[in-house]
Amino acid sequence: MGIFGHLFGHDSKQDDPELLSAIERAVSGVEPLLKQISGYPENYRKPVVNALEYAHSLAASVPGPVAVDRESYARDVFVHVLFSSLDSVTEALCSSLALQDYQREFPAMGELYALMGMRRFEKSMVGMEMSGQTIQRDVVQKVVYFTSHTLECPAPTEQLSRNRVAMGFFDSLVAKVKRRVEERKQDRKTQQLEKDMLMARLRTANAQDRPALEGKLAGLLSSMQSTISSLELGNYTADFEAVLLNPEQYLRLDQKQVILDSMGVRRDADGASRGEAFMFNELIGYDRRDWTVTMVHCSNLHTEAFATKLEKAYRKLAI
Prior knowledge:
By secondary structure, this protein is α+β, with helices and mostly antiparallel strands. Helix content is 48%, strand content 23%. It is built from ten helices and seven strands. It has helices at 17-30, 45-61, 70-75, 77-82, 86-94, 97-105, 158-204, 210-230, 237-244, 304-318, and strands at 66-67, 112-131, 134-155, 252-260, 266-267, 276-284, 291-298. Strands 1, 2, 3, 4, 5, 6 and 7 form a seven-stranded mixed beta sheet that branches. Strand 4 (252-260) and strand 5 form a beta hairpin. Helix 2 runs parallel beside helix 9.
């Protein structure tokens, strides 16, 4: 039985406060009026429990935590790969709105755990390579680098941070339920515009064109009826089931192994001796962009250098 399996029990009529809170969170995120119709909350138990199980499992599978600070940049090859320079470590942390909020909430805490997301890119550059004892110039190389470092769900402990990450994943899945509904609402608007256009053409159509236009209108009206029916509140349960019972289709972690040398140049398997294999975890489906993610542990947040830069970031944000 999974970590939320106890929420069912043998008597599904007994409402667990944790489950009810999650159901309300999910339903309110899609359409609050669903709480006013029959079938609430019973119809949402199974999909919500399944999505919670998946979200916590996915959060637990995010690798890390990796120590991220100026010291780890020098000693940890993986951290060195993630940041372009020593100063970029501090700059990435200071530019994080989540970290700034965390510092205001926990001013006495000098460390935190969080989910760090980055955008991974590759670009072609011309460089030099050794071929035996010969230096080859003007060799086209692919350099891997990371930008847009972002901290999410900071917390004083790793477990609390992962729990917050899990709820973020859960909310992301709920957002995809809402998107299904919004797409049908947009379809209804598009169909209504098409109907208006067809009606206008029918009013001026001659006898030769009228049968074809009437056929199009009949098909459109049938589609409109189907769309309108699907937007009845009682049918929203199908959207929750489609996404929350199949969460892996909408949100997942993909692992990708990349061989890099000390300069960040990508090597193929034949050139593995000149580099090191790194496993990057790509979070697919969280938002419109794919992120390379890892859990991180940031410490020494109260050192003078870091505190000064963080204060500058506060002032810049205020402006």
